[in-house]
Write a structure and sequence with these properties.
heterodimer, A: mainly alpha, Sodium/glucose cotransporter, 2 domains, 2 strands, globular, B: mainly alpha, 3 helices, 5% strand
């Protein structure tokens, strides 16, 4: 069977599974629609959270980033996992105890103002929309590359699937579909990794293979060999640090705080039955995430090694030791067609040279005229990896299904967060509080359908700034939502003026800092200074500023609250109440 | 100090302890001390690199389960656990 038919079959089978689950798990009340009726087992919720969290970016882009950045990509590995420690200890159990449906609802209640709730709604929608555009694009790319149907049709197919199970099932349908999607994506991610680890090191566990010796007879450790090849070809050593320590620190911190503040992740912890379950569920979520995140460094390093050894087949500088362009492998040709891999024969020798500036002093002697791999898009690494390693076709089909599962599951979680912010917080909470539950459920379905349509349209015509806005999404979550939630739980003293000023100050400084270097509203040519390290304040890149924004938020909120009125008594009682697991109705005598 | 306050203080102490470990393994070993730690080997891994790309993640998982277990017994000790 050829690859295309096989891919159609595998992807089609997963789609049939998702729709089957959606029909089995329809939502019939607002509680089921928003939080799956608070009846999801903590381990299953952890699995769903894993799928919700791991997006097309984690599945497709991260290992590629690691392959080309080496040690410096550790910021993503630590940043996107460390946030769960903060979630488990600082937010999840208390928000679950509070027992409402959405993040803006807690902020609005705790800081007793619709203003605070509105700021939270705004942050939530901006952060979620920017995220969802990327997922939609990922779905379109996966379809067009593997099924060779055009981007728009692929995107529409994805939209229809999400529409069926998200609009019908709400959080309940999404949760059970995400569990299936987790299984698909983790299988698709680890199978090729195991094969490649076996090929290169003889060890089937990629996490151990990365620390093992090569089976090519050199007896060298894999990472040492990779360091050697990189430096020999003029690249920086793979395991060496390239960026500034301060920026690496702040970016990791921003990603951690941002992760803990992203509403679609927090909402997942509203779905478990008990406070106790919320704590454990965060742990399980991280277990399921860690399976992929600890495999990714092996995938990245091994893909890089395979790529370099495919091109540089022998001793550097010797006449016959570079890949002949006419004999390039199939995956090379396939990716050239997409424009994501570009070769240019600069010295007209019909062979491929892939090296970096560190070799500038020797290139003339070799007869080389510059790096000829003009473009190697990092996003192709995970998708091309099974082909580079000559794995069977069914593995390649599986990777396509896995990438689509990762994108679909995250898109659904984000769309639900957007829909509930609109129907529950904006409509029911602020604009028309008198609607019945049935009407609200209907509105939330409309809001969901609308959100899918908007996300699809934006994915079809992605604004040029889609990639840059990811920094903004994390900046927003880190500088506004996380501090407000944490202060709302850990301080009885912070009042509505303090919280609103804090959120606006954190949000404002982060926005201004990002726009200053990226252009106002990301419009080209409106940046105040070129986006280069020399111009950054203390060398802090715009993407890393979220941690500073969070610090400003904390400082402003605490200071202003000191000089303004104490929160009313019932708010203090509410804070006391969220801090203990036992239900308020339990009348336990204290 | 009332029972409720003591429960909260014990919880805060536990959180601070866990977050110190969280900070040391990721920001400490994985970022600030990565160069000196890289002179130590863990199989084919340089130790600092291992903490940054593997070890910190394993320790994060362990920390959450440690915290959840400790809090469960604390909830029972102060009789604030759910039914």
């Amino acid at each position: 069977m050829d690859l295309k038919t096989l891919t159609f079959l595998v992807v089609g089978a997963t789609f049939a599974l998702y729709i089957f689950i959606a029909i089995k798990a329809r939502a019939s009340s607002t509680s089921e629609f928003y939080v799956a009726g608070k009846g999801v087992h903590p381990v299953l919720n952890g699995m769903a959270t894993g799928a919700d969290w791991m997006s097309a970016a984690s599945f497709i882009s991260m290992a590629g980033l690691i392959a080309f950045k080496g040690y410096d990509a550790s910021v993503y590995l630590m940043g996107w996992t460390g946030g769960y420690v903060l979630l488990a200890m600082l937010l999840a159990p208390y928000l679950r105890k509070y027992g409402k449906f959405t993040v803006p609802e807690f902020i609005g209640d705790r800081f007793y103002s619709n203003g605070a709730r509105l700021v939270a709604i705004l942050c939530l929608i901006t952060a979620s929309i920017t995220y969802v555009i990327g997922q939609m694009k990922g779905i379109g790319v996966a379809f067009s590359r593997f099924l060779e149907i055009d981007f728009a049709h692929g995107l529409i197919a994805g939209m229809i699937i999400v529409f069926i199970y998200a609009v019908l099932g709400g959080m309940k349908g999404i949760t059970y579909t995400q569990i299936a999607q987790y299984c698909v994506l983790i299988f698709a991610y680890t199978v090729p990794a195991i094969f490649i680890s076996l090929q290169l090191t003889g060890n089937p566990i990629p996490q151990l293979g990365l620390g093992s010796t090569m089976t090519d007879g050199s007896g060298m450790f894999l990472l040492d060999k990779l360091d050697l090849i990189c430096t020999d070809l003029g690249f920086k050593a793979y395991t060496a640090q390239k960026g500034s320590t301060l920026d690496i620190f702040l970016l990791t911190m921003s990603l951690m705080i941002g992760t803990a503040g992203l509403p679609h992740v927090i909402t997942r912890f509203f779905t478990v039955p008990k406070v106790k379950d919320a704590r454990f569920s965060a742990g399980w979520a991280l277990v399921f995430i860690a399976i992929l995140y600890t495999t990714a460094p092996a995938v990245g390093a091994m893909a890089r090694l395979n790529l370099m050894e495919t091109i540089q087949t022998g001793e550097i500088g010797a006449p016959n030791s570079n890949l002949e362009y006419s004999k390039r492998p199939n995956w090379f040709k396939n990716w050239e067609k997409t424009g994501l891999l570009v070769f240019e024969d600069k010295n007209n020798d019909g062979r491929v040279q892939y090296y970096d500036k560190g070799l500038a002093d020797k290139e003339q002697a070799f007869g080389w005229a510059g790096n000829e791999m003009v473009k190697v898009d990092r996003d192709i690494m995970v998708l091309a990896n099974p082909e580079i390693a000559n794995l069977p076709n069914w593995v390649i089909a599986l990777v396509a299904a896995g990438g689509i599962a990762a994108a679909l599951s995250t898109a659904a979680g984000l769309l639900l967060a957007i829909a509930s912010a609109i129907s529950h917080d904006l409509l029911k909470g602020i604009m028309m509080p008198n609607i019945t539950e049935k009407q609200e459920l209907l509105f939330s379905r409309f809001a969901m359908a609308g959100a899918i349509l908007v996300a699809g349209l934006l994915g079809l015509n992605p604004p040029g700034f889609a990639a840059q806005v990811v920094a903004l999404a994390f900046g927003l979550a880190a500088s506004s939502i996380f501090p407000a939630l944490m202060l709302g739980i850990f301080s009885r003293r912070v009042n509505n003026t303090g919280a609103v000023c804090g959120m606006l100050a954190g949000l404002g400084t982060t926005l201004i800092y990002i726009f200053w270097f990226k252009g106002w509203l990301f419009i080209k040519g409106t940046a105040m200074l070129p986006d280069t390290p020399a111009n950054w304040l203390f060398g802090i890149s715009p993407g890393s500023f979220g941690a500073v924004g969070a610090l400003i938020n904390f400082a402003v909120a605490l200071t202003i609250s000191q000089f303004t009125a104490d929160p009313p008594g019932h708010i203090k009682a509410m804070v006391e109440d969220v801090r203990v697991p036992r239900g308020a109705g339990g009348a336990t005598g204290h | 100090m009332s029972n409720g306050q003591e429960y909260w203080q014990r919880n805060l102490r536990l959180i601070i302890g866990c977050l110190i470990v969280w900070f040391i393994v990721s920001f400490g070993f994985g970022i600030f001390l990565v160069e000196p730690l890289n002179s130590i080997r863990l199989g084919g891994y340089k130790l600092g690199f291992w903490f940054a790309q593997q070890g910190s993640i394993y320790i994060f998982v362990a920390l959450i389960f440690f915290y959840a277990n400790k809090m469960n017994s604390l909830d029972k000790e102060f009789d604030v656990h759910e039914d």
